[in-house]
Model the fold of this input.
Amino acid sequence: MNINNIFEIQPAQDYTLIRFYGFIDASTVQQIRPVLQRQLPEHSANLIIDMREVGFLDSHGVGLFVSLLKQAHRNKGHMAFAAAKGQPSSVLQMVGFNGGLVSYCPTLSDAYALFVKNRAV
Amino acid sequence: MSAPIATPDRALKTHAQTPARWQKTIGSPAYADLPPLRAEMRRFLDLAGSPAATSDRYCLSLCEIISNLVKHPRQKAQAVAITCTAAGAHLRLDVADDSTPFASFDAICKSAPARLQAAGTLAESGYGLGCIVAQHARVCYTPAAASVDGRNHFTLEDGAPAAAPQSAPKPLVFLVDDNPADLKMHHRMLSGFYDVVPLGDAMAAMAMFDARRPDLIISDLHMPGTDGAALRRRISALPDGDTVPFIFLSAAAEGMNDANLLRLGIDDYIVKPATSQALQRTAERVLRRREQVHRALESRFHRDVQKYLHPHLPPQAGRWRIALKNRMADAGGGDFTLHSGNEDSLSVILADVMGHGTEAKFFAYAYAGYLRSLFRGALAPERGLAPAAPHTLLTMLSAAVAADDFLDASLLTCQSFRLAQDGTITIASAGHPPPLLLPRRALPSVLPVAGALPGLAGADYQPLHLQLAAGDKIIFATDGFFDAFSAEGEAHPPAALMQMLDTCAPMGAEDCSHEIWQRFEFCAQTQTRPPDDATLIIAAYGGSDEHQ
Done:
């Protein structure tokens, strides 16, 4: 399995975008986690998790997001899920991340605006 | 990926009266099995006409069950048999395996409604079972020792079976008797009403008790080896054993008045030969009483916890007026406050333990007690010493959380502030939504106070010092409050809240809190999110009520 087909990281000035593809489950998270830890810049504070291309999310994926959330907060940043739909969206709702800790943005543009607006403020 | 050890037997039938069935057997499971298994089951459910959301739930649960089998058992499964049946709205998934049974699953499944809350504590693992239990109407784990085919079974079910109306599961009764004829006869008398497990001696009952927790034990008193009285004593010594109702059966009527037996705390004594009616009525009465006591205790627990957690602050502290509003949601985690004051200042801690339901409430209850103990000396020091500053309290908290695995497995946000009599306020925050400043003669604004969640490495809490003028107010709140005003994805602070604060500037603390809370309740009604605990604190300096 090519890890580049599962996720990609795009650092930007106000945020780091992590785009996931396909399944974020027990079969992929084991491979994602170490590569993500290596590739994600240590200072990454604001994270946008692009969920547009995610078809399936399980509890291992939720655990991965929790570790990203902790990194964001460690760096005094924030995390936003963008454009989650279908099954992944249901799982995120079920697990119930605290609305004060993460943002759920209906589109990727909303997530960009969230961090760019914060900079402007 | 492990190789399948049997060819998939997909015998999908569309006849209205016959359930469609998908069966699959695999060898030692691996994570790589998950995508193809999920795809096969989805195809089956699609063909069976299940709604997409239902298919999603079953696919997720199948993955979580298989993942647990890959990850946890001491002795891995060599064969896993998956059976999914669909008949109209009735769906059932059974996963049978030959691994070492999970000792804790039974207890988890029995406490199903509370299980998801563990998922809400933001540990990085442990969500799987919570997801399963939260998604299905009935979840059952039967370890090999208690199953008919000697395999562990994880069974999920939704909707009523088409052929049989949905009914509550029968209470589980252990029937223990060394006399095979009596055992058979009593089994026949009870089996129409209860799920009866016949056991030939006390040791078999002890072994079964490890695997399944009965709702009632009916035991012969006189048995060779370990007799009924010894069985009662041994069961009572086990965790939760003393709460299981116990009825003795004996041919000797004089045992009813035996002081030694009465001291064992049994629930009844039936003299053999027992009639069917006597046996059934006694069992029913004892089980009803147990249910009654259980409900009463649960209700008292909720009442006591809510009473203890209910945030409260003094309405006045020197020249400060303080108003507090709180909504304690059944489903939400726990908000709580701690405070301590002297003639110079009032120190307050506002905390929010994340999670939902009874388990989160219990966690908040435990957390509140822990923090009370942790901060006792720091908040109310011996005479002559100043209480610790807000940022010092948060540093103490963060260090304690980092050093304790139990606390680190939960998520708490916390804000600490001190109101001094000269109008200064010192605020520090640990992952909490920032407070709002509502000046008497200016626009409301967000105060720049932030800090890492307690327990994160290198957490460094910076205090914000502010001098308030008479009539100025500070608004503290938990995320459950702010969420009610927020549109999906909206950043803090919510625009709807800031707009209404403009009109509240001239008000005193009490009027202002009343006005805002009314709007909060209105907004909360229109929210689709499950209700969370919400707390609002308004601190007004200089007796702002007199300035109206």
In short: Chain A is about 45% helix and 25% strand. The mean pLDDT of chain A is 85. The longest strand of chain A covers residues 47-57. Chain A touches chain B at residues 23, 25-27, 30, 56, 58-60, 62-64, 66-67, 69-70, 73-74, 76, 80, 86-87, 90-91, 94-101, 103-106, 110-111, 114, 117-118 (CB under 8 Å).
